[in-house]
Amino acid sequence: MSVLEAPAATSVEEAELRRDYDALGERLARRGVAIDAIRDKAAAFAVAVPSWGVGTGGTRFARFPGPGEPRDIFDKLEDCAVIHRLTGATPRVSLHIPWDKADPAALRQKAGDLGLGFDAMNSNTFSDAPGQKLSYKFGSLSHTDPGVRAQAVAHNLECIALGQALGSKALTVWVGDGSNFPGQSNLTRAFERYLDAMREIYRDLPDDWRLLTEHKMYEPAFYSTVVQDWGTNYLIARELGERALCLVDLGHHAPNVNIEMIVARLIQFGKLGGFHFNDSKYGDDDLDAGSVDPYRLFLVFNELVDAERHAGPDFHPAHMIDQSHNVTDPIESLMTSAMEIQRAHVQALLVDRGALEGFQEANDALMATTTLRQAFRTDVEPILAMARLGKGAALDPVLAYRRSGYRARVAGERPAVTGGGGGIV
Ligand code: LRH
Ligand code: MN
Ligand code: MN
């Protein structure tokens, strides 16, 4: 088994970090912020890693695999364990079925050995699995054929059963259902069929589970999509019941959409279930979180932190990454993304909420926005590094990973994979 331990910090590294941390602590104290409390919150922060993210992604045109591609879910779990060991921020893995289908006892054993748990289960009715009886070419949960709908419902129930055996507590449903031509599909009927099928799934959802539905504006359907936006997603959650919540994948909106406002609305009406973090420039680009627009990521966390002040114990949106890594080592990208998400969270914790409220009440737009920017501009790296140090993770995860030679080692164990045509996501 390929496991990697985080290297201990040298005394020089630790002393340098301590100095940076103390200097930042002094500056924050002047702003009335206790740095240790922020560090503790940073240490408690976790985001789940997608099993499908540790393999090299692809586009519709090609996939260029890297060395040491994971062969199966067990290799994927090992890669996920590296990410968690080095960052200390990713204790759980989100599985995609049937891609990750395996004996639940073996999965539990492997994850346990690696110190990992399982996050939300993801069903897949947007592609046909080998040997599958009926095709999802023209849809799944909203298909015109009741047989196809029943098959898609059964698949989701199977995901729940597997998840129960693994200790998961949520099912995420994303469907590619939609149409490519005006008139191809009756927009209302399709949504009715989808809702009926989802009601069947919800009926069998264990009491302590949440059902997360994910909207996406387009792709693979390019004219209409059944669950296309947060409004439709909200309707689904409201129709199904209390344990049905909306999942916001940051890449699934039209360009320039104000995602933080969507987040605020869903929180206000008790329907924010969680996130798929990534970044994008044009569409569902699945780029690394915070790599294009870190301010937007911060603004999303600003809403979350603001909500936490008033929220009840039930407010714990699921934090998951959903990315596709085409030109980087997926382990490096996922570690960097986890840290960027953690950074946005910490920066949002630094917002002077009292001052912000005062400026908002006084309609002082400039000072209000300056208050947000002051938090965003704070270099919180010493806080993140100190949180990692306290957990026995690596001070510099990417550097530690490169020095470890992990990729070369697994490349020796895992057969090389040749490139190919289009991939998904
Ligand atoms: C769809 C999506 C959804 C899928 C994943 C593989 O674009 O974001 O979350 O489950 O990609
Ligand atoms: Mn997603
Ligand atoms: Mn996506």
Q: What features would you describe in this structure?
A:
The protein is α/β, with parallel strands linked by helices. It has a single domain (13-412), classed as TIM Barrel (Alpha-Beta Barrel). 47% of the residues lie in helices and 10% in strands. It has 15 helices and ten strands. The strands form two sheets. It has an eight-stranded parallel beta sheet. Helix 8 packs parallel to helix 9 and helix 10 (330-349) crosses helix 12 (365-377). It binds 6-deoxy-beta-L-fructofuranose (LRH) and manganese (II) ion (2 copies). One manganese (II) ion (MN) binds next to loops.
In a few lines, what is going on in this structure?
With 425 residues, this protein is α/β, with parallel strands linked by helices.
Which key phrases capture this entry?
425 residues, TIM Barrel, eight-stranded parallel beta sheet, two-stranded antiparallel ribbon, binds 6-deoxy-beta-L-fructofuranose, binds manganese (II) ion
Chain-wise SSE layout:
Layout: H1 11-30, H2 35-44, E1 49-50, H3 73-87, E2 92-97, H4 104-114, E3 117-123, H5 146-166, E4 170-173, E5 178-179, H6 187-203, E6 210-214, E7 224-225, H7 230-240, E8 244-249, H8 259-268, E9 272-277, H9 294-308, E10 318-321, H10 330-349, H11 353-361, H12 365-377, H13 381-391, H14 397-404, H15 406-413
Parallel strand pairs: 1-2, 2-3, 3-4, 4-6, 6-8, 8-9, 9-10
Antiparallel strand pairs: 5-7
Helix pairs in contact: 1-13, 2-10, 2-13, 3-4, 3-10, 3-14, 4-5, 5-6, 8-9, 9-10, 10-12, 11-12
Bound molecules: 6-deoxy-beta-L-fructofuranose and manganese (II) ion (MN) (2 copies).
One manganese (II) ion binds next to loops.
